[in-house]
């Protein structure tokens, strides 16, 4: 057994050395951290203002989640590298129709190129995180079609890829055990890696130490997740490689997974990373302070000279996008989803940050975080004050249609029927729904009509259900 372990370590170190030689001998891409420009908000600035804000960040790249022509026009002659996206719903159609692919590239890439410096076409977004459907098996065929279209129009500088989340891995700890999900390895991952390898593109990965830490804050130190120096050193038991932060540990798990799948030399591109500046009451560690610390440390790490890379792949550039430009108020899900921005929708900065990595010191005065420990106590979910009554009625009907007896007490004659108002009834229904179904993934959101509160809305004999943490 000991001899096998030594042989395995020797093989890993040999691949490690070959990758290092390959990296040093090939034309190296500049890190140039960029920013994700999401648009899921009803109060966001115009593209012209947004591009000015992106320039103020000194971003080398920008990623958009569509091919918004107004944004692409505003990016003309800026020298900012641009990543655009083929929407998920088009993947299956493009996979089976080269003419449609050609028309898509002609309409969405060719008409802006080269004045708008489009460098990446990402096909879909986190496809393997969606329920298993035909889109999975059509992903790589669609990428091939887009690649053929780009070649047809002689757009040879534009790379094709697809961003995946960390849930594409079945095993991620220790890093040397990194392995892709068995259910998709042969059908999706290996064809994807073959395509990326053949076209000299990247494996695009969305990597969020925040979520890994928040799921296990007892065993993972906050400073380790925030990339703070001198917090912890973890040694991989197989390779002996030492890790001083969670981001590099997660990235190396992906590198090892690609190695295990037979593709040890493919480059990584961090398609998204970031830390939420706020969230729901029951979400730990989401604060302006932590977001600033993490994102500043990421930029420092990725722009370090000489290039840092990771313990398994040292001295290798890691191009990246920080998520995201704005707090986007229409993103569904938990509160953190709406609080990843570097700017508020009014254009004011949430905290100072320089994506070029040239700013080494930032002004003090960030608000001290108050939620680095899990909240303990009761939480209720109530309707937002001033919410649209028509929308609130629809959400009330939805909540009452779920669960077991969710809305019994607000029926005529029930203990919570009075006061007979839409806001009151919706608040009870939201709290009841959330208390029953939170463990099954339900959120206190309701299309932006609900908010968490620690103030008990119960009165008299009317008792609102709550979530107790």
Instruction: Enumerate how many helices there are, as a single number.
Output: 13
Radius of gyration: 24 Å
Major sheet, described briefly? 9 strands, parallel
Which band does the percent of strand residues land in?
A: 5-15%
Write a structural description.
The chain has 469 residues and is of the alpha/beta class. The chain is built from 13 helices and 16 strands. The chain has helices at residues 2-25, 47-56, 69-74, 91-95, 98-110, 134-152, 182-199, 209-214, 222-225, 246-260, 288-302, 389-400, 422-437, and strands spanning 34-37, 61-64, 81-86, 118-123, 159-161, 163-165, 169-171, 179-180, 202-206, 234-235, 242-243, 267-273, 320-323, 378-383, 450-453, 467-468. The chain has a nine-stranded parallel beta sheet with strand order 5-4-3-2-1-13-12-9-6. A three-stranded antiparallel beta sheet has the order 15-14-16. Strands 7-8 form a two-stranded antiparallel ribbon. Strand 7 and strand 8 (179-180) form a beta hairpin. The chain is globular and about 70 Å long. Mean pLDDT is 94; it is low at 1-6 and 22-27.
SSE topology:
Elements (H helix, E strand, L loop, with lengths): L1 H24 L8 E4 L9 H10 L4 E4 L4 H6 L6 E6 L4 H5 L2 H13 L7 E6 L10 H19 L6 E3 L1 E3 L3 E3 L7 E2 L1 H18 L2 E5 L2 H6 L7 H4 L8 E2 L6 E2 L2 H15 L6 E7 L14 H15 L17 E4 L54 E6 L5 H12 L21 H16 L12 E4 L13 E2 L1
Label this structure with key terms.
469 residues, alpha/beta, nine-stranded parallel β-sheet, three-stranded antiparallel β-sheet, 16 strands, globular, disordered N terminus
